[in-house]
Specification:
Layout (H helix, E strand, L loop, with lengths): L3 E6 L6 H14 L6 E6 L5 H8 L5 E4 L16 H6 L4 E4 L2 H7 L3 H14 L2 E6 L3 H5 L3 H12 L5 H4 L3 E4 L13 H19 L1 H6 L1 E5 L7 H5 L6 E4 L6 H8 L4
Parallel strand pairs: 1-2, 1-8, 2-3, 3-4, 4-5, 5-6, 6-7, 7-8
Helix pairs in contact: 1-2, 1-12, 5-7, 7-9
The structure holds phosphoenolpyruvate (PEP).
C-alpha cells in the first residue's frame, strides 16, 4: 500500500523568522495521520531553523534543488551530501520554474536524481507539459520524455525510492487545477512508464504526486483517484491553517 505524501514547496518565500512563525502556528494544528506523510521544502537559508522546529515531529525536511557534484568550484550550488548533513531527506528536482527560468534540462534532472539517490535522499522529480504542449496533444509525449530522460540509468531498486510529481505547467500558481480525470490519466501514464523502466512491482510502489493549485478545498477529490498518491503544494503551503487543513484531508 502506498502512503499518501503531501509536500509543501515554499519556493523563495519564508525567511528564517517567517519560517519559525509559520511552524509555531502550524505544528499545534497538525494532526498526524498514519496514512499520510508530510514534508516541507523551505528555501536553503531556512532549512536550519525549519529542521530545528521539525525535530520533534514526523514531518520530513527537504530542499528545492541540489547540484549533482559532491563538492568543488560550483559557485552558488549545494550538494546532496550537504543537504543530508542539514537533515534533509528529499529534494525537489526539475520543477518547471527551474526548467523555464534557469534553463534546467532533463539531463540535469537525471544527474541530480542519481546524486540524490546515491546520497540516500529521495528525489521528487517534477514533470509536466505547458499549455501549448497540451493543446497540441503532446502532453503524454512530453511527460514520457521527461521521465525516460530524467530517470535514465536509475536501477529498479533505486527507482522504488523515487517520487514523481506531475505538475502541468499551466496549473502552477494559476488557480487552474487539472480536472481529476485529466490528472488521473497522466498519473496512469506515469505509472506505465515507471513499469517500463523498473517493472510492475516497482511502479505499484512508486508515489506519484499531483501539483498545480492544490488547496484544502480540492485536495480530497484529486487524492481519491487511483493513481494520485499525494500532492506537491506551492501557494497553499504558505498558510499554516490552510496547509494544516489540506494535510488533514479525508478521501
Ligand atoms: C508548485 O510550485 O509546485 C505548485 C504546485 O504551486 P501552486 O500550488 O501554487 O500551484
Amino acid at each position: 500500500m502506498r502512503k499518501y505524501l503531501i509536500i509543501g514547496n515554499w519556493k523563495m518565500n519564508q525567511n528564517r523568522s517567517e519560517t519559525a512563525a509559520f511552524l509555531d502556528d502550524f505544528l499545534p494544528l497538525y494532526k498526524k495521520n498514519e496514512d499520510v506523510e508530510v514534508g516541507i521544502a523551505p528555501p536553503f537559508t531556512s532549512i536550519g531553523v525549519c529542521g530545528d522546529k521539525l525535530s520533534e515531529s514526523s514531518i520530513f525536511l527537504g530542499a528545492q534543488n541540489c547540484h549533482w557534484e559532491d563538492s568543488g568550484a560550483y559557485t552558488g550550488e549545494i550538494s546532496a551530501g550537504m543537504l543530508k548533513e542539514c537533515g534533509c531527506s528529499f529534494a525537489i528536482i526539475g520543477h518547471s520554474e527551474r526548467r523555464q527560468l534557469f534553463g534546467e534540462s532533463d539531463e540535469g534532472v537525471n544527474k541530480r536524481a542519481l546524486a540524490l539517490l546515491s546520497a540516500g535522499l529521495t528525489p521528487i522529480v517534477c514533470v509536466g507539459e505547458t499549455l501549448d504542449e497540451r493543446e497540441q496533444g503532446e502532453a503524454f509525449n512530453v511527460v514520457t520524455r521527461q521521465l525516460e530522460r530524467g530517470l535514465a540509468g536509475v536501477s529498479p531498486e533505486k527507482l522504488s525510492q523515487v517520487v514523481v510529481a506531475y505538475e502541468p505547467v499551466w496549473a502552477i500558481g494559476t488557480g487552474k487545477t487539472a480536472s481529476t480525470a485529466q490528472a488521473q490519466e497522466v498519473h496512469k501514464l506515469i505509472r506505465k512508464v515507471i513499469a517500463k523502466l523498473g517493472g510492475d512491482s516497482i511502479s505499484q510502489q512508486t508515489r506519484i504526486l499531483y501539483g498545480g493549485s492544490v488547496n484544502d478545498k480540492n485536495a480530497a477529490s484529486l487524492l481519491r483517484e487511483n493513481d494520485i498518491d499525494g500532492a506537491l503544494v506551492g501557494g497553499a503551503s504558505l498558510d499554516a491553517q490552510k496547509f494544516a487543513s489540506l494535510v488533514g484531508f479525508r478521501v
